[in-house]
Amino acid sequence: MRWHGYRNGYTPEVTAGIRSGLAAASRRSSLALTMRRRPLLNLSEGRAHRLLVRTLTSTGWNVAIKPPVQAVLDKEHDDLAMDEFRLYTQGHFDFAIYSEDDPLAAFAIEFDGFGHDQPDQIARDIIKNRLCARAALALLRVGSAELREIEQVTVLEWIVERFTEWHRERPEIERRIEEEVRRLPPDDPILSQMRRTGFADPAYDSTFLFDLEHPFPPNAAVAERLRTRFGIRVDSSLLRYNDDAGIAAYALRLPRQIGGTEDGAVSEFATCERRGTVTRLAPTPTVIREVVGRARFAAAHKTKAPGPAGGSAPSTTVFPPPGVHGSGEALRRWLETLSPGELQAFSEYQQWVMARITSLDMTWLPATSPDDIVEQLSLYDALRSVELWASRNLVDLRRAPTPSVM
């Protein structure tokens, strides 16, 4: 049997099929030239992901990569503005952390790297801050500093590890506190003060006790090197353990600690500055080095607009005296003592404070307050600056010649 009557030897149907297949192949070839795959994460995001996976392994917590905003947050009403709706339906978080036992995100992470200082990106970041604030979802904003390895650990790892450890240790810490409180007599002054003020004494505050047990690990490592290499003893109250072992030639003290805030494009940063001295102890105590350590961390996220939260602070302010706060008879009596100008200044200050509060989201991770973070990181900055100075100016005891024994 043979085909005949057609120049190419195929029936019209087969020829049409071949032409259709060639056309489809041509289209696929054209698409291959104009479309390519792209990385899910850039270099910094990839590093952050590796750190998160390493930290969360075997903890019962997981990390989701690039989850859509509408997969993490669920809007209950159709009250989003156009730009909010666009980000809600088209935007994503860099990472979201969730428990194996609960699919709800515990917190989200945004890496504010290259391009986040551009006006359009700033506007999108503020919208994202606002959506998280409405859902009471903690948002951890980090940059390259939090990914830099310090003594084989990064700030991001330390913060996330504190979060997982808090969930693991909290029941036992609170159980111990409850037992100790039950043993207090009913008229104990500490118990009376806790009932009157509504605030726990630090000795019975679970977050305070947890913080004492989870300092920034590199601080102890640097302090140990200062002692063994250069004979510099660090004030034990800074390290949260006793570092008074052995004889030291020098002492490092950091008595001054100054907290504050610093304005950023989409966040307000908590800041801490530590000041102190290195003192030669013998023959007469002599200060030989002034020490400064600084740190900052994104603490509160802007939800309305760039620029200082709440606008510019009033040029003149009037503050209540110690012991007068909130509302009540004491505040009313104090207000009656103010002149009209002072009353106006106090009113403007109160309005500014309220404007700040309503334009910032301060939802933090449990037991991981920004103030604790910057206190620890400023201590590391101070310790490391002393170590660098000592390596250039003091004798390294490990390399000093050992006296011969006659």
Subunit organisation of the chains: single chain
CATH class of the domain at 217-308 and 367-400: Alpha Beta
User: For the largest beta sheet, what order do the strands appear in spatially?
Assistant: 5-6-7-8-9
Mean pLDDT: 86
Gist?
This protein has 13 helices and 9 strands. By secondary structure, it is α+β, with helices and mostly antiparallel strands. The N and C termini lie far apart (115 Å).
Molecular structure report:
The strands form two sheets. Strands 5-6-7-8-9 form a five-stranded mixed β-sheet, with helices on both faces. Helix 2 (43-56) runs parallel beside helix 6 and helix 9 (217-230) runs parallel beside helix 13. The longest helix has 29 residues, at 155-183. The protein starts with 11 loop residues before the first helix and ends in a 13-residue tail after the last helix. The protein has 406 residues and is an alpha+beta fold. It is globular. Helix content is 45%, strand content 18%. Among the domains are: 43-147, no CATH class; 217-308 and 367-400, Double Stranded RNA Binding Domain, CATH 3.30.160; 310-358, no CATH class.
Kindly list the characteristics that best describe this protein:
406 residues, alpha+beta, Double Stranded RNA Binding Domain, five-stranded mixed beta sheet, four-stranded mixed beta sheet, disordered N terminus
